[in-house]
Amino acid sequence: MVQRVRKAVLPVAGLGTRFLPATKVTAKEMLPVIDKPVVQYAIEEALAAGIEEFIFISADGKEAIAEHFSPHPALEKALAEKNKDAELKLVQGATLPPGAMHIVKQPAPLGLGHAVWCGWKLVGNEPFAVILPDDMVLSKTPCLKQLIDAHAKVGGHVVAVEDVARDQTNRYGILDVLSDDGTLAKAKGLVEKPKPENAPSTLAIIGRYVLDPAVFIELDKKTQGAGGEIQLTDALNKTIGSVPFHGLRFEGKRYDCGTRVGFVEANVAFGLALPDMADRLRPLLQKLLDAK
Ligand code: G1P
Protein backbone atom coordinates (compact mmCIF):
# COMPACT_ATOMS: atom_id res chain seq x y z
CA MET A 1 0.00 0.00 0.00
CA VAL A 2 1.26 3.47 -0.90
CA GLN A 3 1.58 5.72 2.16
CA ARG A 4 -0.58 8.85 2.26
CA VAL A 5 1.12 12.18 1.47
CA ARG A 6 0.69 14.40 4.55
CA LYS A 7 3.59 16.84 4.43
CA ALA A 8 4.75 19.49 2.01
CA VAL A 9 8.12 21.22 1.75
CA LEU A 10 8.00 24.78 0.40
CA PRO A 11 11.35 26.33 -0.51
CA VAL A 12 10.92 30.08 0.08
CA ALA A 13 14.47 31.21 0.85
CA GLY A 14 15.15 32.90 -2.51
CA LEU A 15 16.03 36.60 -2.59
CA GLY A 16 13.62 37.49 -5.37
CA THR A 17 16.17 39.69 -7.10
CA ARG A 18 14.08 39.83 -10.29
CA PHE A 19 11.46 41.81 -8.40
CA LEU A 20 13.65 44.43 -6.77
CA PRO A 21 12.90 46.96 -5.43
CA ALA A 22 9.53 45.35 -4.49
CA THR A 23 11.42 42.58 -2.70
CA LYS A 24 13.81 44.85 -0.79
CA VAL A 25 11.92 44.18 2.46
CA THR A 26 8.97 42.12 1.20
CA ALA A 27 9.37 38.39 0.55
CA LYS A 28 8.67 37.72 -3.13
CA GLU A 29 6.23 34.98 -2.10
CA MET A 30 4.18 37.69 -0.36
CA LEU A 31 3.60 39.70 -3.54
CA PRO A 32 -0.11 39.51 -4.31
CA VAL A 33 -1.77 37.98 -7.31
CA ILE A 34 -5.02 39.97 -7.21
CA ASP A 35 -5.58 40.10 -3.43
CA LYS A 36 -3.74 37.05 -2.13
CA PRO A 37 -0.02 36.46 -1.64
CA VAL A 38 1.47 34.03 -4.16
CA VAL A 39 2.40 31.63 -1.34
CA GLN A 40 -1.19 31.44 -0.10
CA TYR A 41 -2.31 29.94 -3.41
CA ALA A 42 0.28 27.19 -2.86
CA ILE A 43 -0.97 26.53 0.67
CA GLU A 44 -4.62 26.45 -0.42
CA GLU A 45 -3.77 24.05 -3.23
CA ALA A 46 -1.95 21.80 -0.77
CA LEU A 47 -4.76 21.91 1.81
CA ALA A 48 -7.22 20.95 -0.93
CA ALA A 49 -4.95 17.99 -1.70
CA GLY A 50 -5.05 16.78 1.91
CA ILE A 51 -1.68 18.14 3.11
CA GLU A 52 -1.61 18.65 6.87
CA GLU A 53 1.90 19.87 7.62
CA PHE A 54 3.87 22.59 5.91
CA ILE A 55 7.62 22.88 6.11
CA PHE A 56 8.87 26.24 4.90
CA ILE A 57 12.55 26.35 3.99
CA SER A 58 13.16 29.99 4.71
CA ALA A 59 15.86 32.60 5.23
CA ASP A 60 16.48 35.79 7.19
CA GLY A 61 14.19 38.59 6.08
CA LYS A 62 11.35 36.30 5.06
CA GLU A 63 9.58 36.22 8.42
CA ALA A 64 6.42 37.74 6.91
CA ILE A 65 5.53 34.37 5.37
CA ALA A 66 5.17 32.64 8.75
CA GLU A 67 3.46 35.75 10.15
CA HIS A 68 0.92 35.64 7.34
CA PHE A 69 -0.19 32.13 8.26
CA SER A 70 -0.33 32.87 12.01
CA PRO A 71 -3.29 34.29 13.96
CA HIS A 72 -3.52 38.11 14.11
CA PRO A 73 -5.57 38.76 17.29
CA ALA A 74 -5.53 42.59 17.07
CA LEU A 75 -6.77 42.68 13.48
CA GLU A 76 -9.33 39.95 14.16
CA LYS A 77 -10.66 41.86 17.20
CA ALA A 78 -10.91 45.12 15.24
CA LEU A 79 -12.78 43.45 12.37
CA ALA A 80 -15.12 41.59 14.74
CA GLU A 81 -15.96 44.83 16.57
CA LYS A 82 -16.88 46.46 13.26
CA ASN A 83 -18.98 43.42 12.25
CA LYS A 84 -16.78 42.95 9.20
CA ASP A 85 -17.52 39.24 9.04
CA ALA A 86 -16.42 38.63 5.45
CA GLU A 87 -13.08 40.35 6.07
CA LEU A 88 -12.63 38.45 9.34
CA LYS A 89 -13.16 35.21 7.47
CA LEU A 90 -10.47 36.17 4.96
CA VAL A 91 -7.99 36.85 7.77
CA GLN A 92 -8.81 33.64 9.62
CA GLY A 93 -8.79 31.68 6.36
CA ALA A 94 -5.13 32.58 5.94
CA THR A 95 -4.22 31.06 9.33
CA LEU A 96 -2.82 27.55 9.65
CA PRO A 97 -3.74 25.49 12.72
CA PRO A 98 -1.19 25.29 15.56
CA GLY A 99 1.53 22.78 14.73
CA ALA A 100 0.80 22.68 11.00
CA MET A 101 3.62 25.04 10.10
CA HIS A 102 7.35 24.50 10.56
CA ILE A 103 10.09 26.93 9.65
CA VAL A 104 13.60 25.75 8.80
CA LYS A 105 16.25 28.34 8.01
CA GLN A 106 18.41 27.38 5.06
CA PRO A 107 21.88 28.49 6.17
CA ALA A 108 23.06 29.45 2.66
CA PRO A 109 21.56 29.49 -0.86
CA LEU A 110 23.10 26.20 -2.00
CA GLY A 111 20.35 25.15 -4.42
CA LEU A 112 16.88 23.64 -4.55
CA GLY A 113 18.21 20.19 -3.63
CA HIS A 114 19.84 21.60 -0.52
CA ALA A 115 16.63 23.45 0.40
CA VAL A 116 14.62 20.22 0.20
CA TRP A 117 17.33 18.35 2.16
CA CYS A 118 16.84 20.92 4.96
CA GLY A 119 13.34 19.46 5.47
CA TRP A 120 14.56 15.88 5.96
CA LYS A 121 14.27 15.73 9.79
CA LEU A 122 10.72 17.10 9.70
CA VAL A 123 9.56 14.93 6.79
CA GLY A 124 11.08 11.70 8.10
CA ASN A 125 10.63 8.48 6.19
CA GLU A 126 7.38 9.06 4.31
CA PRO A 127 6.38 10.31 0.87
CA PHE A 128 6.10 14.10 0.75
CA ALA A 129 5.22 16.95 -1.57
CA VAL A 130 7.46 19.77 -2.75
CA ILE A 131 5.76 22.95 -3.92
CA LEU A 132 7.60 25.80 -5.61
CA PRO A 133 5.19 28.70 -5.00
CA ASP A 134 6.51 30.64 -8.02
CA ASP A 135 4.73 28.16 -10.26
CA MET A 136 0.99 28.83 -9.98
CA VAL A 137 -1.52 26.47 -11.53
CA LEU A 138 -5.10 27.20 -12.55
CA SER A 139 -6.96 23.89 -12.83
CA LYS A 140 -10.26 22.20 -12.08
CA THR A 141 -8.63 19.69 -9.73
CA PRO A 142 -5.76 21.14 -7.66
CA CYS A 143 -2.51 20.19 -9.39
CA LEU A 144 -1.05 18.63 -6.24
CA LYS A 145 -4.17 16.52 -5.77
CA GLN A 146 -3.72 15.20 -9.31
CA LEU A 147 -0.16 14.19 -8.41
CA ILE A 148 -1.19 12.57 -5.13
CA ASP A 149 -3.93 10.58 -6.89
CA ALA A 150 -1.42 9.36 -9.49
CA HIS A 151 1.09 8.59 -6.73
CA ALA A 152 -1.51 6.41 -4.98
CA LYS A 153 -1.53 4.25 -8.13
CA VAL A 154 2.12 4.17 -9.21
CA GLY A 155 4.08 5.13 -6.05
CA GLY A 156 7.69 6.32 -6.24
CA HIS A 157 8.28 9.87 -7.44
CA VAL A 158 5.50 11.62 -9.37
CA VAL A 159 6.13 15.15 -10.64
CA ALA A 160 4.08 17.60 -12.68
CA VAL A 161 5.39 18.00 -16.23
CA GLU A 162 4.52 19.96 -19.33
CA ASP A 163 5.88 20.19 -22.84
CA VAL A 164 7.98 23.31 -23.36
CA ALA A 165 9.50 24.83 -26.48
CA ARG A 166 12.90 23.28 -27.21
CA ASP A 167 14.65 26.63 -26.79
CA GLN A 168 13.39 26.68 -23.17
CA THR A 169 14.86 23.36 -21.94
CA ASN A 170 17.74 25.19 -20.24
CA ARG A 171 15.27 26.60 -17.70
CA TYR A 172 13.95 23.26 -16.41
CA GLY A 173 14.59 19.72 -15.22
CA ILE A 174 13.97 17.59 -18.33
CA LEU A 175 12.82 13.96 -18.53
CA ASP A 176 14.57 11.25 -20.52
CA VAL A 177 11.41 9.33 -21.34
CA LEU A 178 11.26 5.54 -21.24
CA SER A 179 7.54 5.14 -21.99
CA ASP A 180 4.63 7.52 -22.32
CA ASP A 181 0.89 6.87 -22.35
CA GLY A 182 0.05 10.51 -23.05
CA THR A 183 -0.74 11.29 -19.41
CA LEU A 184 1.99 9.56 -17.41
CA ALA A 185 5.52 9.53 -18.76
CA LYS A 186 7.93 7.09 -17.13
CA ALA A 187 11.48 8.45 -17.06
CA LYS A 188 14.74 6.53 -17.34
CA GLY A 189 16.72 9.63 -16.51
CA LEU A 190 16.59 13.35 -15.75
CA VAL A 191 18.79 16.27 -16.73
CA GLU A 192 18.81 19.67 -15.04
CA LYS A 193 18.67 22.63 -17.44
CA PRO A 194 20.12 20.95 -20.55
CA LYS A 195 20.99 23.06 -23.61
CA PRO A 196 18.27 22.62 -26.27
CA GLU A 197 20.61 20.54 -28.45
CA ASN A 198 21.37 18.15 -25.57
CA ALA A 199 17.88 17.84 -24.08
CA PRO A 200 16.63 14.22 -24.14
CA SER A 201 13.03 15.50 -24.58
CA THR A 202 11.03 18.69 -24.14
CA LEU A 203 9.06 17.35 -21.18
CA ALA A 204 9.84 19.73 -18.32
CA ILE A 205 9.32 19.46 -14.57
CA ILE A 206 7.27 22.28 -13.08
CA GLY A 207 7.10 23.19 -9.40
CA ARG A 208 4.99 20.35 -8.02
CA TYR A 209 6.49 17.09 -6.82
CA VAL A 210 5.43 14.04 -4.79
CA LEU A 211 8.64 12.35 -3.73
CA ASP A 212 9.79 9.15 -2.14
CA PRO A 213 12.00 9.87 0.92
CA ALA A 214 14.81 7.88 -0.76
CA VAL A 215 15.74 11.17 -2.43
CA PHE A 216 17.11 12.45 0.92
CA ILE A 217 19.85 9.79 0.89
CA GLU A 218 21.10 11.19 -2.43
CA LEU A 219 20.66 14.82 -1.38
CA ASP A 220 22.69 14.07 1.73
CA LYS A 221 25.74 13.47 -0.51
CA LYS A 222 25.59 17.22 -1.33
CA THR A 223 26.86 16.72 -4.88
CA GLN A 224 27.05 19.95 -6.88
CA GLY A 225 25.39 20.06 -10.29
CA ALA A 226 24.31 22.70 -12.82
CA GLY A 227 25.31 26.22 -11.77
CA GLY A 228 27.41 24.79 -8.90
CA GLU A 229 24.19 24.17 -6.94
CA ILE A 230 22.90 21.05 -5.20
CA GLN A 231 20.14 20.09 -7.63
CA LEU A 232 16.96 18.22 -6.73
CA THR A 233 16.80 16.91 -10.31
CA ASP A 234 20.24 15.27 -10.00
CA ALA A 235 19.34 13.53 -6.73
CA LEU A 236 16.07 12.27 -8.23
CA ASN A 237 17.97 11.06 -11.29
CA LYS A 238 20.27 8.97 -9.10
CA THR A 239 17.31 7.18 -7.48
CA ILE A 240 15.86 6.08 -10.84
CA GLY A 241 16.36 2.33 -10.99
CA SER A 242 15.44 1.84 -7.35
CA VAL A 243 12.48 4.27 -7.25
CA PRO A 244 10.02 4.59 -10.18
CA PHE A 245 9.81 8.10 -11.63
CA HIS A 246 6.73 9.36 -13.46
CA GLY A 247 5.92 12.75 -14.93
CA LEU A 248 2.22 13.61 -14.91
CA ARG A 249 0.83 15.82 -17.65
CA PHE A 250 -1.57 17.56 -15.31
CA GLU A 251 -4.87 19.13 -16.28
CA GLY A 252 -4.60 22.91 -15.97
CA LYS A 253 -2.40 25.83 -16.91
CA ARG A 254 0.80 26.87 -15.19
CA TYR A 255 1.92 30.47 -14.72
CA ASP A 256 5.55 31.22 -13.94
CA CYS A 257 5.40 33.97 -11.34
CA GLY A 258 9.18 33.95 -11.03
CA THR A 259 9.43 36.33 -13.99
CA ARG A 260 7.91 39.81 -14.29
CA VAL A 261 5.97 39.00 -17.45
CA GLY A 262 4.74 35.70 -15.96
CA PHE A 263 3.67 37.57 -12.84
CA VAL A 264 1.57 40.02 -14.86
CA GLU A 265 0.13 37.13 -16.89
CA ALA A 266 -0.82 35.31 -13.66
CA ASN A 267 -2.55 38.41 -12.30
CA VAL A 268 -4.61 38.72 -15.48
CA ALA A 269 -5.39 34.99 -15.70
CA PHE A 270 -6.38 34.66 -12.03
CA GLY A 271 -8.41 37.87 -12.31
CA LEU A 272 -10.27 36.50 -15.33
CA ALA A 273 -10.94 33.31 -13.34
CA LEU A 274 -12.76 35.29 -10.62
CA PRO A 275 -16.45 35.65 -11.50
CA ASP A 276 -16.77 39.00 -9.70
CA MET A 277 -13.87 40.48 -11.68
CA ALA A 278 -13.93 38.86 -15.10
CA ASP A 279 -16.80 40.90 -16.54
CA ARG A 280 -15.19 44.21 -15.63
CA LEU A 281 -11.64 43.16 -16.42
CA ARG A 282 -12.25 41.79 -19.91
CA PRO A 283 -13.37 45.10 -21.52
CA LEU A 284 -10.58 46.98 -19.75
CA LEU A 285 -7.97 44.62 -21.14
CA GLN A 286 -9.51 44.86 -24.59
CA LYS A 287 -9.39 48.65 -24.39
CA LEU A 288 -5.72 48.59 -23.46
CA LEU A 289 -4.93 46.29 -26.38
CA ASP A 290 -6.97 48.40 -28.80
CA ALA A 291 -5.20 51.58 -27.70
CA LYS A 292 -1.77 50.28 -28.77
C1 G1P B 1 13.71 24.50 -10.46
C2 G1P B 1 14.23 23.09 -10.73
C3 G1P B 1 13.90 22.66 -12.15
C4 G1P B 1 12.42 22.79 -12.39
C5 G1P B 1 11.93 24.22 -12.07
C6 G1P B 1 10.42 24.33 -12.14
O1 G1P B 1 14.45 25.41 -11.25
O2 G1P B 1 15.64 23.06 -10.50
O3 G1P B 1 14.30 21.32 -12.34
O4 G1P B 1 12.12 22.46 -13.73
O5 G1P B 1 12.33 24.60 -10.75
O6 G1P B 1 9.99 25.65 -11.96
P1 G1P B 1 14.47 27.01 -10.94
O7 G1P B 1 13.23 27.55 -11.55
O8 G1P B 1 14.54 27.15 -9.46
O9 G1P B 1 15.70 27.51 -11.64
List all distinct small molecules, including ions and cofactors, that are bound in this structure: 1-O-phosphono-alpha-D-glucopyranose
Number of strands: 13
Class, according to the CATH hierarchy? Alpha Beta
| Overall spatial form | globular
* Rg calc: 19 Å
Topology-level CATH name: Spore Coat Polysaccharide Biosynthesis Protein SpsA, Chain A
Largest sheet: 9 strands, mixed
- Identify the CATH architecture: Alpha-Beta Complex
Mean pLDDT level: 96
**Which structural class best describes the helix and strand composition?**
alpha/beta
**Could you give the order of the helices and strands?**
EEEHEHHHEHHEEHEEEEHHEEHH
Number of domains: 1
Provide the spatial order of strands within the biggest beta sheet.
5-4-1-6-11-8-12-10-9
Q: Give the strand content.
A: 15-25%
CATH superfamily: Spore Coat Polysaccharide Biosynthesis Protein SpsA, Chain A
The percent range for helix content is: 25-40%
Head-to-tail CA distance between termini: 58 Å
Q: Specify the number of helices.
A: 11
> Which regions are unreliable across 5 or more consecutive residues at pLDDT < 50?
none
Concise synopsis of the structure shown:
It is built from eleven helices and 13 strands. The mean pLDDT is 96.
Task: Tell me what you see in this structure.
By secondary structure, the chain is of the alpha/beta class. Helix content is 35%, strand content 24%. The protein has a single domain (7-290), classed as Spore Coat Polysaccharide Biosynthesis Protein SpsA, Chain A (Alpha-Beta Complex), CATH 3.90.550.10. The strands form 3 sheets. The protein has a 9-stranded mixed β-sheet. The longest helix is centred in the last third of the chain and has 17 residues, at 275-291. The model has no long low-confidence stretch (mean pLDDT 96). The structure holds 1-O-phosphono-alpha-D-glucopyranose. Residues 112, 132, 135, 172-173, 192, 204-207, 231-233 line the site of 1-O-phosphono-alpha-D-glucopyranose.
